[in-house]
Amino acid sequence: MCAGNVFKEGFLWGGALSANQCEGAYLKDGKGLSVADVLPGGMISEVINPPNGKFPSHEAIDFYHRYKEDIKLFAEMGFKCLRMSIAWTRIFPNGDDEFPNEEGLRFYDDVFNELLKYNIEPVVTLSHYEMPLNLVDKYGGWKNRKLIGFFEKYAKVVFERYKEKVKYWLTFNEMNTILHMTFIGGGITFKDEDNRREIIYQSIHNQFVANAKVTKLCHEINKDSLIGCMINYGCIYPMACRPLDSMEALEMDRKTLFFTDVLVRGYYPSYIKRFFKENNINIKLEEDDLSLIKENTVDYIGISYYMSRVASSNKEDKEMANGNIFKMLKNPYLEASEWGWQIDPVGLRYSLNTLYDRYQKPIFIVENGLGAIDTINEEGEINDDYRIGYLREHISALKEAISDGVDVIGYTSWGPIDIVSASTGELKKRYGFIYVDKDDDGNGTLERRKKKSFYWYKKVIESNGEILI
Ligand code: BG6
């Protein structure tokens, strides 16, 4: 166990949101359609037609009109930062517009001003599963190099506009998930005859170049800014001590670490070259791509951590568990949430150590939390002890990792206020410290109500992570 408090002064405690899951107002004030606006059943389904004619994210929790009330509540909990995203389609409704949309820019000016009024540092993701739909329809998404220019133009506008207000930026949310969710992550659709892997890795390459270009821009526009990449990361355990299980685990881990290897170290690792060769993947590079990537690596690593995974070489291992992106092998030693996501705080410590051993770069945990069904009792209270328990365990593991020597600069729990689930589109899957009166059928007053965890997290922040009881 670690003695004393390990969190440094200025540790960034807070919560994390994405525009498409909280704002609503999906076509208000000039906003265009994004990929998230046409996925009612959430990103797992990648279904374009609504099963029940409802799109929960179109109204979401109406953060667009209620951000003042919500930010006031975040301030009451003592938030030091709020991770949020800018909806690209509020700024460039079609992605390829000549001029930005002033009303969209003004909205984020107002939100940032409101945060700064309470000394809450905005941590801003440029693209959180909400690219303009027009860039998919007209250009085929990220497989097209033209997207690099559109993204760069968008980033330049927001870096210049908000340079006095925003210091912390993130480029693409969970960039590695494009491997599994090609539409929401990259706006990619396929034809039967396509070499799918080649298209996916070409799109990833285009995003790497875009990442490098905007990293460069960000530093030029504000030399004090810090810009990070963001991956969905959870360590991989071998199912047994069979050597081939460990080999599987290594390869599975590399599928994700490939992203940080390029974005943090600045070059394509040797193992991916073998993979490309054996899978007939030929990436089209332009002359300066590799030097750009090399010279413009990120300042910090943003991660979402929800679960660890298991790898096995044994075909008999078939029992599965759910995850936010895909199904995975069940780990018999772990409990799971109501949505079947396996809960593993030790895995957080393990993951942080793995990343820090490999890169020695600051890490920012920009997502972690428990999606659960909450009920209001007769006294009007929501006693979410299960959520408190989950967060307590994970923050304790984070403490251990910091004691191990890992440089973690902040922790933002996912969905500090209830929002629409990204994977399923549900509202009953709640992460918040603040309850929002809205159900899956769109009924409810949108009234906000503090849960028991609200008061608990307030104490955690007040004590800079020392008091977790
Ligand atoms: C992450 C996403 O994968 O998981 C978030 O970055 C998402 O957008 C979060 O909301 C939790 O997943 P879900 O499906 O429970 O909302």
From TrEMBL:
Q: Where is the signal peptide?
A: none
Judged by the first EC level, this protein's enzyme class is hydrolase
Q: Which GO molecular function annotations are given, in alphabetical order?
A: 6-phospho-beta-glucosidase activity
The EC number on file is: 3.2.1.86
Note whether Hydrolase occurs among the keywords: yes
Presence of the UniProt keyword Hydrolase in the record:
yes
- Active-site residues from the entry: E367 (nucleophile)
Supply the PROSITE patterns for this chain.
GLYCOSYL_HYDROL_F1_1 (PS00572), GLYCOSYL_HYDROL_F1_2 (PS00653)
Keyword annotations for this protein?
Glycosidase, Hydrolase
UniProt family annotation: Belongs to the glycosyl hydrolase 1 family.
Which PANTHER family does the protein's record reference? Answer: 6-PHOSPHO-BETA-GLUCOSIDASE ASCB-RELATED, GLYCOSYL HYDROLASE
Protein's UniProt name: 6-phospho-beta-glucosidase
Q: Look up and give the organism this protein is from.
A: Clostridium hominis
